Amino acid sequence: MPTTLLTCLLAAALYCVQLPLAQAAPPAKPPPIRAGYIEFPPYSYTDEQGRPTGHLLEFLRLVAQQAGYRTHFVEYPSYRLFKSMESGLIEMSPSLVQHPLMSAYTLRSRYRVARLTLNLYYNDRPPPAQLDRLRDIRLLRIQGLTYPGSPLAALAREPANGIVLVTAPTHLAAAQMMHLHRADYLLDYQDPMEAAFKESQLPILPSVTLLQQDFTIAYATASPRAQQLRDDLDRAIDQLRARGALPEQYGEVMPYPREAVGPPPIR
Fold first, then answer.
1. Scanning 170, 184, 200, 216, which has its CA 20 to 30 A from the CA of 42?
2. Where do the H-state alpha helices sit in the chain?
3. How many CB atoms lie within 10 A of CB 150?
């Protein structure tokens, strides 16, 4: 057999052997989702070993895994997280359904994943009978958090009301500042604030409920795969709900109306 013909036959045989192997190669895994979070225990925080933790982050990991993605979580201060979502450096983050900043540059999941209660805590002052009559007080808030819909926002903007805004860097610092009488009232979400009272070993202050806020998952439109991520993870939530496989805290995850801005304030 001529040498040239033998070489061609051997090459063809080798190609036929390699072809099934190439066809059987698994598809490349998509890159991890770059996910951001803020210090907001027990939903999201960094533990003593420096690991991202909290039941909301575990929920996001589960949903991403169901959709075939890995996640890489990074903690940010609030406003750095907003900027990182705007630029696409971060692709996914928990968010208010109608966030006053992030709504302009994100897609949002079709699901409400959590509903948080916004409280007004007080110490030596009496409980406010009518919020619109609050005058000459020191109002403590958490740095970087937003409270859309809070009836106190309009009051604080009017200088004649004498409302002095005081800022705490963390929920834990807010608990300590109230204990030291650095403010008269504290505006904060119930779950992280009560976790801070527990950590500080200080008594939970009395409070009145102002409203409830719906939270969802936001995806940065600056990421070229924002819509794919939103659709894939929403589909994964569908699948987990159908199997009854969602964590206990997220058993009531449900779609929300596209025009929803959250439930009305509690009267």
1. 184
2. 3-24, 55-66, 78-87, 151-157, 171-179, 190-200, 226-243
3. 19
Residue 203 is classified by DSSP as P
Q: Do domains 33-115+213-255 and 116-212 have the same CATH topology?
A: yes
Instruction: Decide: 69 and 140 in contact? Cβ < 8 Å.
Output: no
Backbone angles phi, psi at 127, to 5 degrees: -60, 140
Burial 91-116 (b: 16+ CB within 10 A, else e): bbbbbbbbbebbeebbbbbbbbbbeb
Question: Residues 3-48: pLDDT tens digits?
Answer: 554 454 444 444 554 545 445 556 678 999 999 999 999 999 999 9
33-115+213-255 fold: D-Maltodextrin-Binding Protein; domain 2 (3.40.190)
Q: What are phi and psi of 50, to 5 degrees?
A: 80, 20
- The 10 Å Cβ neighbour count of residue 149 is 19
Query: β-pairing, 207-220 with 185-189?
Result: unpaired
* CA–CA gap between residue 152 and residue 147 (Å, rounded): 9
Q: What is the mean pLDDT of residues 50-68?
A: 97
pLDDT at 149: 84
Topology (CATH) of 116-212: D-Maltodextrin-Binding Protein; domain 2 (3.40.190)
- Indicate the domain borders of the chain: 33-115+213-255, 116-212
Tell me: the pLDDT tens digits for 74-130?
999 999 999 999 999 999 999 999 898 999 999 999 999 999 999 999 988 888 878
Q: What angle do CA 14, 15, 19 make, to 5 degrees?
A: 120
